[in-house]
Each structure stands twice: as structure tokens, then as C-alpha cells.
Specification:
The chain is α+β, with helices and mostly antiparallel strands and 435 residues long. It contains 13 helices and 19 strands. The two termini are 22 Å apart.
């Protein structure tokens, strides 16, 4: 039931511009209010309803904060020779084509393989004489006098060789390691002879293996790669690299920086990039100035969870060192292409909120927001707002969502400054706006 205090409050807050007419006008207003209250019912009647009715929704004037894409990535590719790279594991960022061709330079013409040929020798031999994983030594190879004579033969040619003492007996695993790490030509021919009876028989087996695996642009005439007629294209070499990386025995060997093997002694991997920028293989090769090659794999951490799985072929580098630098510069440029993009700072104003009774406040971001993205990937921004419940300072009234590729960042939107509730008089005089 309304009380005299309610009437006093109404009179106190009545607009000054209401016609009063002196004492008579004020008496008339009191009579009007009494009649209105009596007419609209007991138990508080209209005053009770108006004081408790839901308020109308405020007007939100806001704009999603602008989010500019980052700078475009600048991939560093060599100016001479050729290079072809594929990337797996980052298609959501780099696009679906990255697993095929992510970056290329210099075309896809055949070039001399050099010692990358020994990687083919290892794959073909293991296809015929498989090992049961990296820990399996496999069969023992008893090297003959004809095999040990290869040391002198290749020494005269200036090829890379490894010690092979008379009467040496070595496991297939250790033999392959001695061939692949220091790139020993004498072990390549000796292993090929052991596996297939002769080097020429090996060549025929290698050609069949290449055909079976779709490497139709790769040509093999010997087991070592000393013959410049051993050639391949960058695209074939990417496929070869995936096959080698998928073979657990070879993958483990080529990721080894050095080893000590009884007979050959200390052997060192010619790929001195192992472990740098996630490089894990595969094989170097060169036939002199301007023919330096590196078929490489890398597990490149770019800060997006799982590392990128990179396979690349660099052919026709000027020197060993420059070829290494070409690969490192490219991988670093990929890594640098991923960056954290600032999106907003706590307190940034993004709009206002105002009410029909004339109160207003500012809408601001509740927290800092950023996301990691690739290159100049566009950033989409969405803003959703809701009706306040308490109209209090700090009340959350919405969310901003930023999306770039597979990455999403969010920030709540809150009221900065309390919104005053309407007076009872405003409620009584605006019934059409109340819920």
C-alpha cells in the first residue's frame, strides 16, 4: 500500500515546469495523484508496478576495434641454382598448397645429384634387405679384398672415402651409417655389390625402385653419385626426401652428427646443420663449385603448437657454406613470418551505452588481446553486446572476438562508469517504455 511518504517523494520530484497555479494548483495535483492511486488499485497499484517494472534496453553505440593484418612475410630464396620446399602441419596458416609446393626458385630442371645418390642406394638396399627398426644391426657384411681395393680407387679420384681394413666384418646398419654420414664412396659401391651381386645389378634395381615410387625424373647410373649423369629434379627430390624421412632406419642415421664404428673409426655427418633450426637430415652432395646440394628435412618450431614439418631441396649452390646459408636463411624467414599481432589493450574505448532516462557510460575492452598469425593473414573482428543487468561500473556487457586463420582471441567488453538508475518520477511518467 502506498504511503504519504510516496506522495511526498512524487511531489518533491515533480518537474518544475508542471503548471502549479499557486496553492490551488498544488492542491489540484495532490487530488489528481490521490484519485490516480485509488483508481489504479490497492496494494501499491500503479506506483508499485512502475517502480518494479523492467527498464527499457539501453542504446549501445559501438564499433568493433580495427585490427590490421601484420606485414607480409618475405621468404628468402637463393638467386642461383634451384630450391623447392614443401611444408606439412601448417596448412591452416599457410594454405592447403603448402604441403605440395610452399616455395620455389630456379625451376624444376634435372641437376646432378652428387652424393644424394647414396640416399637412394640406402633406400634400395633396405628395400631388398630390410632392417627391423633403428636398433636392428641386420646381417653382417664380410668385406672382400675387391671391396677394400675400392679405397685406393676412389682415393685417386679425390672422392670421399672411409677406412675399410682387410677382413672387416660390419653390420648392414653400421655399413649404411658409414656410407651416409661421411658420404663414403667406397662403402656405397661395396654395399651395392653385397646387396645385388654387382654395381650394375644394383643400378637396374635402383631404376626399378625409382619407377615403382613414381620418381620418373630421377636417373641413376652408379651407386655413389660421382658420375654427373646421376640426376634428379627438385620435385622428385622432395618425394625422395619424404620416403627417406619415413624410413625409421635412415631417419635415425641421417640425424646423427657423428659416430664411432669399429673399423671405419670416427665418422662425421657432412650435413653440419643437424640440430640447427630443427634440421634433422637428409643428405649433402657436391661435384665441385656450383654443384653443391642439400636435401633437407626440418622440424621448425614457429610457436603454433606442433612444429612445421619441412622438406626441401637446394641444388646448384656455389659452395658448401653458401648452400648451408641458403637453407638457414630460408628457414629463418619462414619462422620470422609468424608473429604476435597486438589487437587491443585493456581500457580501449570501443563505444558508449546510453539510456532513455539520460544516463550514459563508456564501453571498454576488459583485457589485452593478441594472437599469433602468419604473414599478412586478414583478421576478422566480431562484436556481440548484451543488455546490462545492474548497470554497474565494470559489468560485462559483451565480447569482442578476433579471428585470423585458425587462431582466435577474445576480450570481454565492460562498462566504464556507473549508469544511474531512473527516478521514480521518470518511471511513473514513462509507462509506455517500461516492460
Amino acid at each position: 500500500m502506498s504511503t504519504l511518504a510516496d506522495f511526498g517523494d512524487l511531489l518533491e520530484h515533480a518537474p518544475d515546469e508542471l503548471p502549479r497555479g499557486g496553492r490551488a494548483g498544488r492542491v489540484a495535483l495532490v487530488v489528481f495523484l490521490v484519485l490516480m492511486l485509488l483508481t489504479l488499485g490497492g496494494g501499491g497499484g500503479y506506483v508499485w508496478w512502475a517502480s518494479a517494472a523492467p527498464l527499457p534496453a539501453p542504446t549501445v553505440t559501438s564499433q568493433a576495434p580495427a585490427a590490421n593484418a601484420g606485414g607480409a612475410a618475405s621468404l628468402v630464396l637463393p638467386s642461383g641454382g634451384s630450391m623447392l620446399v614443401s611444408v606439412e602441419g601448417g596448412q591452416d596458416y599457410l594454405g592447403p598448397d603448402a604441403a605440395g609446393t610452399f616455395a620455389s626458385a630456379g625451376g624444376d630442371d634435372p641437376r646432378p645429384l652428387a652424393s644424394i645418390s647414396k640416399l637412394i642406394t640406402a633406400l634400395v638396399v633396405l628395400d631388398a634387405h630390410p632392417l627391423d627398426g633403428p636398433g636392428d644391426p641386420g646381417p653382417t657384411i664380410a668385406y672382400t679384398e675387391a671391396d677394400t681395393d675400392l679405397y685406393d680407387q676412389f682415393y685417386v679420384q679425390g672422392a670421399v672415402i672411409a677406412r675399410m681394413p682387410d677382413g672387416l666384418r660390419l653390420s648392414l646398419h653400421d655399413s649404411l651409417e658409414t656410407m651416409l654420414l661421411p658420404s663414403a664412396a667406397n662403402y656405397a659401391v661395396a654395399i651395392a655389390r653385397w646387396g645385388f651381386g654387382s654395381e650394375s645389378a644394383y643400378v637396374q634395381a635402383a631404376r626399378s625402385w625409382l619407377s615403382e615410387n613414381g620418381l620418373n625424373d630421377t636417373r641413376i647410373v652408379d651407386a655413389t653419385g660421382i658420375d654427373a649423369r646421376n640426376t634428379s629434379t627438385p620435385s622428385d627430390l622432395l618425394a625422395l626426401g619424404r620416403l627417406a624421412a619415413a624410413n625409421p632406419v635412415i631417419a635415425a642415421i641421417v640425424a646423427t652428427p657423428s659416430a664411432v664404428i669399429e673399423g671405419p673409426g670416427v665418422i662425421t655427418n657432412t650435413n653440419d646443420l643437424i640440430g640447427t633450426l630443427g634440421i634433422s637430415g637428409l643428405k649433402t652432395g657436391n661435384l665441385g663449385e656450383g654443384t653443391f646440394n642439400l636435401l633437407f628435412t626440418a622440424s621448425l618450431d614457429v610457436g603454433i603448437g606442433a612444429p612445421l614439418r619441412v622438406t626441401g631441396a637446394r641444388l646448384g649452390g656455389e659452395t658448401h657454406d653458401s648452400t648451408d646459408q641458403d637453407v638457414l636463411s630460408f628457414l629463418q624467414s619462414v619462422k620470422d613470418g609468424f608473429h604476435v599481432l597486438p589487437l587491443g589493450t585493456a581500457g580501449d574505448e570501443i563505444g558508449t551505452i546510453s539510456t532513455p532516462w539520460g544516463a550514459d557510460a563508456t564501453l571498454v575492452l576488459a583485457k589485452n588481446a593478441s594472437l599469433r598469425t602468419w604473414s599478412d593473414t586478414p583478421v576478422a573482428v566480431a562484436l556481440d553486446t548484451t543488455t546490462p543487468q545492474s548497470f554497474a561500473d565494470g559489468e560485462v556487457v559483451g565480447t569482442v572476438t578476433w579471428t585470423a586463420g585458425p587462431e582466435t582471441a577474445t576480450s570481454s567488453v565492460k562498462i566504464a562508469g556507473a549508469i544511474e538508475e531512473p527516478s521514480l518520477w521518470w518511471r511513473l511518467t514513462h509507462p509506455a517504455l517500461l516492460g
